[in-house]
Amino acid sequence: MSRVLNAPFSADIPVAPFRPGPAGTHITIRGLTKYFAGWPLYENFDLDIPKHKIVSVFGPNGCGKSTLINMIAGLVPIDAGEILFDGKSLKDTRIGYVFQNYREALFPWMRTIDNIAYPLKLAGQSKLEVDRRMAELVASFDVKFDLNRFPYELSGGQQQTASIMRALAPKPEVLFLDEPFSALDFEMTLFIREKLQEVFMQTGTTMLLVSHDLEEAVYLADEVLLLTKRPTKVAEILRYDEPRPRTVETLTEPGFIAAKKRSLEIFQREVRR
Ligand SMILES: Nc1ncnc2c1ncn2[C@@H]1O[C@H](COP(=O)(O)OP(=O)(O)OP(=O)(O)O)[C@@H](O)[C@H]1O
Question: Which residues cross the membrane (predicted)?
């Protein structure tokens, strides 16, 4: 009975020798297995995530997009498998995470500036180092609002901007974004999308983005990771190598339209399966 209700015993899963990803791989996922309430979400799942790229994760409702990035980021425990970052474990890797719900992401008792500086202080950086990094972030985000305010005094878009600044403050090797635009209005979505693209062009930070919006998923991505229904597998990895910066004009270019159409076809095929 316990074998039905719980994750399989690790002894049940044959241990395959570790296979590194192709050159340019940042994150290697091997044999990832995750059960919820006795049902497999991921079973022996392998994936290579490239370095210095933006990968958008797209797939049917409930296929495990958020769970996937949360397992990679160490927020959700895995039942079996291995996840390495450039061959290192998560604890030796600097990561940043941007949550969908920015209202709960920032500490309400801290001024916005202290929220953003928090990971730097936690890492034991000196006041000089913290001030220098904060000045860089403020310049790169072209911040027009008062960072001395408390988060609840800011608009939703300003709070999400602050959340992204906080995630980027320690110069993460990988930035995880779980539907970062879904609670924002259109104007703020465009603003934050452009900021993310700028940061990416300046730093090349590997980004893993969960999106519900196909246009947004393709627009920012170097690769769209299309997932199947559960038990979840890779349906296809679609490469989209339109040069950056991508702009409003990109949205009507043939390459963009073709990538969106192909993603939609795969998505519909998987939803109907
Ligand atoms: N803590 C949990 N306990 C039980 N089931 C869970 C838990 N977290 C997620 N699930 C289930 O795992 C599946 C994948 O959830 P997840 O949120 O990762 O999917 P998603 O693709 O991001 O979903 P959506 O498209 O709705 O945002 C869903 O069926 C969900 O109900």
Answer: none
